[in-house]
Structures are given as C-alpha cells and as structure tokens.
Amino acid sequence: MTERKWSLAACRVNAKLTQKEVAGILKMSPATVNAHETGKISPKMEQIKKYAELYDVPAEIIDI
C-alpha cells in the first residue's frame, strides 16, 4: 500500500502553527516558508528534515 503524502501546508496546519511561527522556529523568512508551501522553491533535504521534525511526521510523507 502506498503511503499518503501530505503537503507542507497541511503538515503545518495539522501542527497548529502559522507560517510566521514556523519561520521563527526554523530561522528562515516567512516568505521562504510560503515559497516552499506553494512550490515556488523546493526545500533542500536538510530543510525537509527540519520541517518533518517540527511537524512530528516522517520526512517521507511530505509531498515536495
């Protein structure tokens, strides 16, 4: 069975965080968080791992 993928935005909302809060925690600009969520910029693997840790999800389920 294929595991369902979650968007970065869905992971963030599920974690009850705003883009501004995520940006502060991960030490990046809110514009960068927004660009990652909208697909304008692909996050690097290191950033994906940080998102996964923050959202308490496996990195493999994040749909990038």
UniProtKB/TrEMBL annotation:
It holds the Pfam family HTH_3. Transmembrane segments: none annotated. It comes from the Bacteria. Residues 8-62 form the HTH cro/C1-type domain. Gene3D superfamilies: lambda repressor-like DNA-binding domains (1.10.260.40). Signal peptide: none annotated. GO terms for molecular function: DNA binding. This is XRE family transcriptional regulator.
